[in-house]
Structures are given as C-alpha cells and as structure tokens.
Design brief:
Layout (H helix, E strand, L loop, with lengths): L3 H27 L5 H9 L7 H4 L7 H10 L4 H20 L4 H8 L16 E3 L2 E3 L7 H5 L3 H32 L1
Antiparallel strand pairs: 1-2
Helix pairs in contact: 1-8, 2-5, 4-5, 6-8
C-alpha cells in the first residue's frame, strides 16, 4: 500500500482487530475445561461480537441473550449464563486494569458498521452530508481515542497480560490433568 491515508485506515482497522482478538483469546483460554454446550454458548455470544466488551459488559442486561441460551441449550443454560456472566466480568477486568483503560474502552466501541451515519473502517459513510471513503478520513485518532502509538501501546499491554494469563492457565490445567 503506497497511499499513506489508505495505509493509516488499514492500520487502524488492524489495531481494532488486535484488541478484539486479544479479548477473545482470553475468553477461549478460560473456557477450555467447560463442556461442549458451554463452549457453544460462548461461541454464539461473545465470540461472534466485534465489540466483545461493549456488547457484553457487566452492566448490560442479558435478557434476550438469556432467552436464546435457554431455548438453544436446554440442558446447560443455567451453567452457561453463569459462566457467561463470570467471563464478562473477568474480561472487563482485563481492560479496567490496563493503564490505558480509556483508550481500550473507546476502541471496543469502534466496531464495524453498515450505517451510513457512523464511521467505518471498511465502508463509505456520510459526514456533513458528504460521502467519505474510510481511507480519506483524517479523524482516526479522535474516533479511536488516541494516536496510533498510544493505541499500539495499550494493545501491547493487553496482549502481554492475556499471554501471561493463558500461560498461567495452561500450567494450572497441566497440573490438574497430571494429578488425576
């Protein structure tokens, strides 16, 4: 990519994706000992979301989500909902403990949108009654809540923490399996 604006747009999109995948990696690592129904509930809820913490923050009522879980997983719905609530509190704790919490919280809310009235990494949108190509937009720092370097640092801190948690989790899992 030789156009600097197009490159910037792609980098901003990849940063958002890095954040999203780090949260999902943590969630997957936490659900390795669960039964298949619980894994499917996690897959059908948090893992399909582009904004895993905005869509499933601890403050959001899970009403319609709970109804879907009850209908689709009649044997495991109580355990699934409990596990989902625990996971979302833990995942939210990942970013609230990050020294760059506000950047990550803002980045979480920048999920892809097909709405013409919302900025998008992929699709043209309308700003001041004019169509704007994402690659020509120069407000990515305002939209994502920080400069590219600030966002890279926040994501790097998050990924390092998630990696440590996964390593610790795998060690605990190994000790659990060898004690049986």
């Amino acid at each position: 990519i030789t156009d600097p604006q197009l490159l910037n747009c792609h980098i901003r999109y990849f940063l958002q994706q890095s954040y999203e995948k780090a949260i999902k990696a943590y969630i997957i690592s936490r659900s390795t000992l669960e039964n298949d129904d619980i894994k499917m509930i996690i897959r059908d809820t948090i893992l399909t979301s582009h904004a895993p913490l905005s869509d499933y923050s601890p403050t959001i009522n899970l009403g319609s989500i709970e109804e879907n879980i009850k209908r689709n997983y009649p044997k495991s719905w109580k355990r699934g909902i409990t596990f989902l609530k625990v996971l979302r509190r833990e995942a939210y704790g990942l970013i609230t403990n990050n020294s760059r919490f506000s950047i990550l919280q803002n980045l979480d809310s920048t999920k892809p949108s097909l709405s013409l009235n919302k900025p998008s990494y992929r699709y043209p949108f309308i700003e001041k009654k004019t169509f704007v190509a994402p690659s020509k937009w120069n407000k990515w720092s305002d939209y994502q809540g920080g400069s590219q370097q600030e966002i890279e640092n926040a994501i790097s801190e998050l990924i390092n923490y998630v990696c440590l948690q996964i390593v610790y989790s795998n060690r605990s899992l190994h000790r659990y399996k060898t004690k049986k």
